[in-house]
Design brief:
Length: 679
């Protein structure tokens, strides 16, 4: 019996499974609440519910988490900085925001990047860079370094700057060339800065795992899922956390594919819908393989070169905030703690919610929401005294919005704790779909009374009569319908963009989105008749994640297909983590040296160096050798055990000049090394 442990830490729940590799089945599974203030508590809770005698026999522990995904969607992360060599601030002012580089305060610009033709740049003035960045780096938890022409000259300047700064600063420092090979330096910069922001998030996660393993006597080596569904070692992930931006969603694809196989073991065409606490992740499986992202992964405001499976992530989950908006309501992408859950931990909040109802107050602000403390920063540097005082006030327990404003000696209109929220130091608690599930009786783990009180207040603020039980019931039905409609609209959008390249490039117009939305309304009203605007698919909808069974069947029916909620759907991410393999890819480009007299030799460019070769066949041969060596080295670094299989792909690029003359634009050689995390 060969066993593995799969662990998935999401924004709401931490799941754990023991998996039998030989029998290909889950032997045991468990869930526990994710404890943001101390992740090891939730991890321990899930692991302790499993058979300890099997845990200690595990040969590998595979991890998945949506912590990085959620940080991107919610605009959170650690304090990080990026040194940009060879680019000035004016370029980033024009285009930076479209890549996620929204704050120039996080960027430092300096010269010294050479040129596009691969010439080695002059050595940067390292001492002046070090001097000029001293104050700027004082609060940084991670640093990225990106050079404009790094992909053309072997990243010489990047390496020089990293070498010096690594001797001075005890923080993780990573070069863009170590992460990505794409030519777009702004996109490389986006991914590199994001990597630095995610360092403390993954560090906390891995430390919590190690603490739990030590307490339980688990000695299995640790691997973690990458965004492409493959695995990497613990040490590798500490320096490259950006590889985990879609770690949880990628694990959900693997888990969904594994758990929804046909009776003969084959993998069906499917649309995998994973609804968690914060986000919903949708992916496509065609011809037994996950569809891959055509370009680098984009998530939240970030546009990166991270490679991965195609996943469309949007803010909709069991913990999405439900807030009134005029006579209607909206389900926001912000994650809040369900009030039913908060009341289970702090029963006194029900008294405050009841007082709010008895006051007969209406308000445009969500004054039924509470602030809670996640991390204590009162004895640390980098925050204002006002922010620290706010955290001290929260140590006594959750505060409603008006109470929180009073603690800051201000009012709810001028109160500003956005930085504390963005850094995950404080969290809001409010009305969510999870609370509505309690009211409707579909979920009963927490405190239903708190959910009812909050729903009544939101209903009143939108102009409804909260004293009429039937109106409260209709309000809950409206929220359920909105969740289903949001799923339907996004699935149709994704399928349209997958089929039609123009929609993928330009997005769905507001008119088409309105047609999709109206079609859902027609289906719910039972309308068809003379003309019907139909959207259908033959792919099965595979639902995973704790709340998905409530919402997905009606969506599948509207799309004319079947809905599959597999056994162990609630822990599919943990299953996906443990069934993954390690794959490491390396790209090397062969570029002709075009001159007025014709092609004079070829440049062979990799992340390590830029070489010159006279003949094309020699250049391609060298590129194959270089790509293979780089892929093998990275596979070993990621934790491959035993034999490694290498696959090589070549892609030739040609253009057309005047008189239909064919122009050689070069060749890209990609080597992929494949292996397992266990022998």
């Amino acid at each position: 019996m060969r066993l593995g442990i799969g662990i998935d830490t999401g924004g709401t729940y931490t799941d754990a499974v023991i998996y039998d590799f030989k029998e290909k089945k889950v032997l045991s599974s468990a869930k526990a609440l994710t404890t943001k203030e101390n992740l090891s508590i939730g991890i321990n809770g899930a692991l302790r519910a499993l058979d300890h005698s099997l845990l200690v026999k595990a040969e590998v522990a595979a991890l998945s988490t949506t912590l990085a995904t959620n940080a991107c969607v919610e605009g959170k992360g650690g304090r990080a900085k990026l040194i940009f060599i060879g680019l000035d601030g004016s370029t980033l002012e024009r285009v930076g925001s479209s890549y996620g580089l929204t704050s120039l305060d996080e960027l430092f610009f300096c010269g010294g990047s050479g040129s596009y033709d691969g010439k080695i740049p002059p050595k940067p003035d390292l001492e002046s860079i070090l001097r000029d960045t001293k104050d700027w780096l004082s609060d940084a938890e991670g640093l990225g370094i990106v050079e404009l022409y790094a992909m053309n000259n072997g990243a010489v300047a990047e390496r020089e700057v990293k070498k010096l700064f690594s001797q001075v600063y005890d923080i993780p420092i990573v070069c863009g060339s170590e992460l990505f090979t794409g030519l777009n330096s702004v996109q490389r910069g986006s991914g590199t800065l994001l990597n630095a922001k995610l360092v403390p998030i993954i560090k906390d996660f891995l430390n919590a795992i190690k603490l739990s393993f030590n307490e339980l006597g688990i000695k299995a080596p640790i691997v973690i899922v990458r965004s492409d569904g493959s695995l990497m070692s613990e040490e590798f992930s500490k320096l490259r956390p950006v590889e985990t931006v879609l770690c949880g969603p990628a694990a959900s694809i693997l888990g969904g594919m594994e758990l929804s196989k046909n009776s003969d073991g084959t993998i069906r065409d499917s649309i995998i819908v994973d609804m968690g606490g914060t986000t919903t992740d949708i992916s496509l499986v065609k011809n037994s393989r996950p569809v891959r992202a055509r370009d680098g992964i984009s998530i939240g405001n970030w546009k990166t070169f991270v490679k991965g499976v195609f996943i469309d992530t949007f803010g909709l989950g069991g913990d999405s905030a439900v807030r009134h908006e005029g006579p209607g309501f909206k389900i926001e992408k912000d994650r809040v703690i369900p009030l039913s859950l908060l009341a289970k931990q702090y029963p006194q909040i029900k008294l405050k919610l009841n007082e709010l109802l008895l006051s007969n107050l209406h308000h445009s602000k969500p004054i039924h929401e509470f602030y809670t403390l996640v991390k204590d920063i009162t004895d640390k540097q980098g925050w204002t005294e006002e922010e620290k005082n706010f955290c001290r006030a929260l140590m006594k327990g959750p505060l409603m919005l008006r109470e929180a404003a009073e603690a800051l000696n201000t009012d709810i209109y001028r109160m500003d704790v956005r930085r504390l929220e963005a850094e995950g130091i404080v969290l809001r608690a409010g009305l969510t779909p999870t609370d509505i599930m309690h009211i409707k009786g579909d979920f009963n783990a927490y405190d239903r009374e708190a959910a009812v009180l909050a729903a009544r207040f939101v209903l009143r603020c939108r102009g409804g009569d909260d004293l009429k039980p039937l109106e409260v019931e209709r309000f809950c039905d409206e929220i359920y319908n909105r969740v289903k409609k949001t799923l339907y609209r996004n699935i149709v959008r994704i399928l349209l963009q997958d089929k039609y390249p123009s929609l993928r490039r330009n997005g769905i117009s507001s008119q088409l989105d309105e047609l999709i939305s109206l079609r859902w309304d027609e289906i719910q009203a039972g309308e068809g008749g003379f003309f019907a605007n139909e959207y259908k698919t033959t792919a099965a909808l595979v639902g995973i994640g704790a709340p998905i069974h409530i919402f997905l069947p009606d969506v599948a029916k509207a799309l004319g297909t079947i809905c599959i909620i597999p056994e162990n759907a609630g822990v599919a991410n943990a299953v996906g983590a443990v069934v993954g393999n390690i794959a490491a890819s390396a790209e090397v480009e062969v570029r002709p040296n075009h001159t007025p007299a014709g092609i004079k030799g070829f440049f062979v460019s990799s992340s390590e160096e830029n070489l010159y070769v006279d003949l094309r066949e020699d250049a391609v041969k060298l590129a194959r050798e270089k790509a293979t060596a780089l892929a093998l080295a990275e596979a070993r670094e990621r934790g491959v055990m035993g034999d490694i299989k290498v696959e090589i792909e070549e892609e030739n690029f040609i253009g057309q000049a005047k008189r239909e003359q064919i122009v050689d634009l070069g060749t890209k050689v990609t080597a992929t090394a494949l292996g397992g995390a266990v022998l």
